């Protein structure tokens, strides 16, 4: 094979683009994308350098703005998402910030659902208002509710493909209609859409897609990164976005829409916001993300399969987990209120690799469950090849009030699980022994607690029975545990699989 692939050729499917898009072997013949560890690039002559800085021609200037390794990664993600252009960033959070800062200024506002990742919620609630950009939150993803919040100063409508951690799946096409009727873009965080493998929001009317590439795109917990994808379909010349149509003071009066047309957004984000603020990717990170992309379809197939199996195990009344589980959230379950939209928008038979469930006994029971796990890793990430768990109320959404947590879909008893590619039986066995540890700790359905009630609930935990071989838990969580179970001497985990776009 020559390695010459045209990503615009529609015969290439997602799995093929994940391996080939964005790169053709150079003069060295190297098949892998090289790591260009350089800060800057030699100009051909004085005029060449001047033209690059004036945006009169494309080319490499400085690695804060562009780099050949980033370029291959950006082209690959743009191809996978069906976009016209992409920009790599230092993280998913920087991708979101740069996106909004590219289109909004002081006095403007963004309309968003409250079903958001905790870091995004805090960015919207605290940081953007400090810069004069207000965010109006809807407590639902209903298009009518969001439409009611849009005014003359609104610059974008913002949602997540699968809300983290509500696990709602918004009606993207209806939201796109709302946004476009008001002359604003629909921005979708497609992190949980796994690089476009589960869903390509642009196909359903989204104008801009953002990702935390750290998650399924990278897939191995080895590097932090983000990426913004421009659909190239939004009309920035509709009178609502003067930053694209009026002369830019940073480029001697250049007008972005007049000069760059459909990719004005991606160009302005790169050459003004990324240049001036500086949260750029690094070539080593982009190299690692490219390695992850190559196996993305295989990993996501397995994680979605595992997630559905775990969700069914947790929600099955006949399961040994049933006595310990108060509820399960996963769009793949027919009982989910979001199942119909999940079937409509997500790849056929696949509903994402993350779920959440409640542990009977409330906040303390949830934390005890996590402490007792032996296989699953307790950390703040999703989309890894390994199974990960976290208690959002005390970690990712800790900075929110109880009411704000519930508005975001976070309950005090919630455990969020990001499934890896392990054998699912090993995962369920690990969960079962952790449930038994909760029982052994004497936490017997204390009820769902808010943060304010957590301290009071400790007094309700059963005291040790002298007739049982029980000893106080010295970890300071106020529980009592049977040594055999909590110490890990028993119940150990045993050592012993197309989107509608098929």
From TrEMBL:
Output the Gene3D superfamilies linked to this UniProt entry: Aspartate Aminotransferase, domain 1, Type I PLP-dependent aspartate aminotransferase-like (Major domain)
Keyword Transferase part of the UniProt annotation: yes
Q: Which GO terms describe its biological process?
A: cysteine biosynthetic process from serine; L-homocysteine biosynthetic process; transsulfuration
List the NCBIfam families hit by this protein, alphabetically.
OAH_OAS_sulfhy
> Does the entry feature the keyword Transferase, yes or no?
yes
An example Gene Ontology CC term for this record: cytoplasm
The region called Disordered is annotated at 483-502
InterPro entries per the UniProt record, alphabetical: Cys/Met-Metab_PyrdxlP-dep_enz (IPR000277), Cys_met_metab_PP (IPR054542), OAc-hSer/O-AcSer_sulfhydrylase (IPR006235), PyrdxlP-dep_Trfase (IPR015424), PyrdxlP-dep_Trfase_major (IPR015421), PyrdxlP-dep_Trfase_small (IPR015422)
- What is the organism of origin for this protein? Allomyces macrogynus (strain ATCC 38327)
Which CDD domains has this protein been placed in?
CGS_like (cd00614)
Cofactor(s) required, per the database record: pyridoxal 5'-phosphate
What family is this? Belongs to the trans-sulfuration enzymes family.
> This chain belongs to which protein, by name?
O-acetylhomoserine aminocarboxypropyltransferase/cysteine synthase
One Pfam family it belongs to:
Cys_Met_Meta_PP
Q: Which residue ranges have biased composition labelled Low complexity?
A: 491-502
In terms of PROSITE patterns, this protein maps to:
CYS_MET_METAB_PP
Keywords carried by this UniProt record: Pyridoxal phosphate, Transferase
Q: Which domain of life is it from?
A: Eukaryota
Q: Please provide, alphabetically and separated by semicolons, the GO molecular function terms listed in this UniProt record.
A: cysteine synthase activity; O-acetylhomoserine aminocarboxypropyltransferase activity; pyridoxal phosphate binding
């Amino acid at each position: 094979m020559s390695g010459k692939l045209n990503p615009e050729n529609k015969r290439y499917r997602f799995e093929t683009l994940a391996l080939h898009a964005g790169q053709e072997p150079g003069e060295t013949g190297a098949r892998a994308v090289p790591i260009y560890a350089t800060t800057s690039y030699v100009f051909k002559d004085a005029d060449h350098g001047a033209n690059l800085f004036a945006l009169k021609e494309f080319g490499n200037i400085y690695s804060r703005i562009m780099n050949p390794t980033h370029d291959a990664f950006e082209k690959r993600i743009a191809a996978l998402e069906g976009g016209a252009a992409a920009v790599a960033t230092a993280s998913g959070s920087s991708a979101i910030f740069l996106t909004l800062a590219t289109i909004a200024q002081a006095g403007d506002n963004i309309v968003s659902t409250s079903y958001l990742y905790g870091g995004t919620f805090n960015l919207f609630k605290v940081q953007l208002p400090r810069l004069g950009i207000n965010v109006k939150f809807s407590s639902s993803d209903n298009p009518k509710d969001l439409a009611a919040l849009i005014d003359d100063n609104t610059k974008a409508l913002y949602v997540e493909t699968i809300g983290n951690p509500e696990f709602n799946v918004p009606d993207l096409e209806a939201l796109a209609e709302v946004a476009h009727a008001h002359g604003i873009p629909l921005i979708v965080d497609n992190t949980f859409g796994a690089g476009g493998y589960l869903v390509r929001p642009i196909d359903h009317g989204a104008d801009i897609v953002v990702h935390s590439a750290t998650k399924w795109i990278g897939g191995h917990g080895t590097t932090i990164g983000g990426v913004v994808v421009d659909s190239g379909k939004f009309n920035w010349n509709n009178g609502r976005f003067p930053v694209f149509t009026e002369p830019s003071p940073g480029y001697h009066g250049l007008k972005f829409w007049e000069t760059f047309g459909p990719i004005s957004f991606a160009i302005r984000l790169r050459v003004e916001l990324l240049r001036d603020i500086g949260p750029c990717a690094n070539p080593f990170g982009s190299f690692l993300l490219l390695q992850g992309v190559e196996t993305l379809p295989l990993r996501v197939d397995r994680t979605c399969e595992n997630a559905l199996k775990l969700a069914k195990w947790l929600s099955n009344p006949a399961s040994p987990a049933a006595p310990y589980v108060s509820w399960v959230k996963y769009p793949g379950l027919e009982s989910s209120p979001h199942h119909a939209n999940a079937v409509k928008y997500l790849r056929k038979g696949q509903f994402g690799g993350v779920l959440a469930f409640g542990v009977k006994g409330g906040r303390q029971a949830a934390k005890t469950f996590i402490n007792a796990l032996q296989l699953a890793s307790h950390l703040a990430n999703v989309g890894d090849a390994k199974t990960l768990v976290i208690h959002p109320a005390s970690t990712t959404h800790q900075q929110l009030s109880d009411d704000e947590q519930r508005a975001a879909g976070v309950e005090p008893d919630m455990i969020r699980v990001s499934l890896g590619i392990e054998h699912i039986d090993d995962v369920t066995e690990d969960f079962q022994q952790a449930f038994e540890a909760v029982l052994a700790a004497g936490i017997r359905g204390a009820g769902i607690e808010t943060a304010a009630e957590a301290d009071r609930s400790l007094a309700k935990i059963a005291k040790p029975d002298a007739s049982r071989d029980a000893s106080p838990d010295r970890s300071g969580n106020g529980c009592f545990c049977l040594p055999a179970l909590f110490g890990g001497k028993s119940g150990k985990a045993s050592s012993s699989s197309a989107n509608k776009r098929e």
